[in-house]
Structure formats: structure tokens, C-alpha cells
């Protein structure tokens, strides 16, 4: 009997960043597929206020924990208080001020839950629920391809703190410049570091799916500097990834496609970095490389999505056919 090994994997999630820019304007022609590989800044706004953490409230009577007492949990999304729509922390503050009790509606996974919550008045006189919320996520990743005026990226979804796919209200893709990286090592994923400005918009995000993040390319964006590419099915053997670890210009690096499973929904093959230059620089696959195109025999076969946490030279890729038509 073969011994089973538990493979630790790590989603190459968006790396939180500061802001700067890079320019590479593109225009997509109908049906043609244009190769990505360049970095992009992502900013996604969620529907409602996403509960990122819980905390105690110091009052004149002692310590109170309104949200903990009401069984509000990290990952819940608050969308209504006393009949009023909620999208951010300001909405929450406005709708609980001078109220000892509120009726709160939230979404937990696929369930809609109604909670009656008693507020706490802190020592400064402000009414609190004892929670931290966020309504947007920012980071960097890699564009996989552009087709029919749409941009495809990451090869995996942006997920919440509890592992669920975030429901997004709106979002943007922006020009980005990679300024450095943290080298990956066994047991600890590395990361690309970059900066972007939200004034340099590339596309508007409208889908956050298991196969990636997608959006509508800006009308004034052109593809004249990008390479047209055909697609194909991945096979075990030599290949290349097209990615950026410095600046904004992608470079090809040698890899090996070790295993292929085209029946899987998104983890379609295992890849191994073999390029000495990339191994010496980043140690292999790092966060921010998600979406990097995988090229085999000159054709686009997929994108990098995950790194094995116990071996940063290896990771998963998604088939290009699972990313098309989104």
C-alpha cells in the first residue's frame, strides 16, 4: 500500500500593498487572446460590512462584549440595521448611535440571520458593538490573459478570513509596479511586494469566482504591446511560467508540469519550478504570482494558483479552459 502524504498548500492570495503605478495600455480585439503575466493592483469592495474581528468594549460599568454575546462571528457580513442598508463602519456607527438595542441582519455563509444586539456605551460616550469591519480588500496579483474586452486574473478567488469566496459589490484593477519580494521557504510562503495608484485604472472587476477574478477592460486600454496566444491542454513535461518579480515587465521562467488532472474544477496540474534564476531569487512560487500564465509549446495552458507550503518549488495550476468565457 502506498504511503499517503499530506500536502500542505497555500493559496497565493493577494499581498497587501502601498500605492504607486505602471503603464501598459491595451486594446483587446474580438476573440483574440492576449498574454498577461504583468502585475496588477486589486481593490474589491464587499456587499455589506465584513466582520473581520471581535473586541471588548470598556464601559463605566466594566467590560462588555455586545457582538460576542449576540454570537456575531468573524466572516459574517452585516447588511442591515433597523431597516437601513449597511456597507461600512460609518454606516454602522450612524445607525447605532443613541440606541441601546438594535435589530441587525447579517449573512453567514448562505444563511440570512437576524440578531437583536444590545449596544455598549464606552467611557467616551460612544455607542459600540465590539467588532471590527472592513468593506474592501486590496492587494497585488498577476493578470493571466485579456480577451473580448475582459481581463482574467489570479486563477483562484479572493477569499474571506473563514475561507469563503467573498461576495463583491464592485472592484478595480490598477497598474502596478513590483518593488521587491520575500523569498519563500519550507513552511512559510514568500510574497511579491508592490505598489499601485487607484488613479491608474485598468479594468472594473465584476466577478470573483473559484477560477479567478474577472472584469471589464477600460475602453481606452489597448493590447498593441501584448502578445497574441493560442490555448491548449497541458501535458506532463517541460513548460514555462510568464511572471513578474521586479518592475512591470514579465519574464519567462522554466518549470515542469509534473501531473495533470483536467477533470478537477480548478487544481488541474502540479508544477515544479526548475529555473535556477527564479529559485535563487524567490525560492520558487510566492504570493502575488497567482494568475501567472503557464506556457507549453508556445501555447497558453493555464495559470499558477497555489504553492505547496512545505515545498515552495511546487504548486498547483488551473487549466486555461476553466478560466475562459467568464
Overview of this structure, please?
This protein has 326 residues and is mainly beta. It is built from three helices and 22 strands. The chain folds into two domains: 9-46 and 136-322, Thrombin, subunit H (Beta Barrel); 56-129, Pdz3 Domain. The chain has helices at 66-69, 89-96, 276-282, and strands at 9-11, 33-35, 39-54, 57-59, 62-64, 77-81, 84-85, 101-108, 111-118, 120-121, 127-128, 131-147, 150-153, 168-182, 191-209, 212-217, 237-243, 251-260, 269-273, 293-296, 299-308, 311-319. Strands 17-18-19-22-21-20 form a six-stranded antiparallel barrel. The chain has a six-stranded antiparallel β-barrel with strand order 3-12-13-16-15-14. A hairpin with a 2-residue loop joins β21 and β22. The two termini are 42 Å apart.
Summarize the SSE layout with pairings.
Elements: E1 9-11, E2 33-35, E3 39-54, E4 57-59, E5 62-64, H1 66-69, E6 77-81, E7 84-85, H2 89-96, E8 101-108, E9 111-118, E10 120-121, E11 127-128, E12 131-147, E13 150-153, E14 168-182, E15 191-209, E16 212-217, E17 237-243, E18 251-260, E19 269-273, H3 276-282, E20 293-296, E21 299-308, E22 311-319
Antiparallel strand pairs: 1-21, 2-12, 3-6, 3-12, 3-14, 4-5, 6-7, 6-8, 8-9, 10-11, 12-13, 13-16, 14-15, 15-16, 17-18, 17-20, 18-19, 19-22, 20-21, 21-22
